[in-house]
Amino acid sequence: IKAGHDLFLSPRLHLVGGKAPGGLLPQEDEDRLAHHIGQDPGGGGSLGLMPVLVFFGLVVVAALMVRGLRQAGEGPVASAARLRLALLLRPETQRALRRLAEEADTTSAKGLADLVDEAVLILLREEPAWRFATYEVKAGGEEEVMARFDAWMVEERSKYQETFRHFEGKKRSEESYRAQMEPGGRYLVVSLLLAERRLHPPKPKLSRAAVREALLDLAGSSPYSLLAAYLSWTPEREGEALTEEELLLLYPELEKL
Q1: Could you list the residue ranges that cross the membrane (predicted)?
Q2: pLDDT for 97-129, tens place per residue?
Q3: Cα separation of 31 and 35, whole Å?
Q4: Cα(60)–Cα(56) distance, rounded to whole angstroms?
Q5: Cα→Cα distances 92→125, 148, 233, 240, Å
């Protein structure tokens, strides 16, 4: 089994802080607002306008809530995507991926989105080296999508011996592993998995153009939509490469580009 590296991020708590929904006011501001509404400077009866505005606002909020509930019942609200890309190996690509894994922030949603962007950029720059690929999309509810993501992740991890792992800010490296040099080895496989609160386009007929579009779509993820992400590649150690026989044995679903 060749060595591989994986990087898994899952910010289950997506946003901490920020503006509260509905524009909540501090208690002193609420008291001040209540005092203003309850009094009529000069005794002119100015209470009439505010209740109308408040009631109108409540009607609008209720309408938006009903609309959102209807939309939620219409179909899938999330999706998982998996892209595997086999390319001709260059040590520079392995080093770029390892550097990305070392420096990535695996503890925040922004770090997650930045990692996806950088991984996509590395792969786009290697387009002349692309040889095989697979791409899958599964849509559904969040729980269903996360279950599919977890299953894909386990499948990926079963294909290699992990020599480096970065998960939730914790790094682990297998220093005792020695690279296995084999004649005819020339391939590197990179897998990128995402689970998001948005719908990815359905799987197209694979071609170089389709892979490019899929990568750009994955790069369109944001800290607000991402549920989880997983990046892995094998071989991870410089000097190692997969032969075409090993490649197709490990990944029989690959399609030639």
Answers
A1: 48-66
A2: 988 888 878 778 888 889 899 999 999 999 999
A3: 6
A4: 6
A5: 11, 32, 14, 13
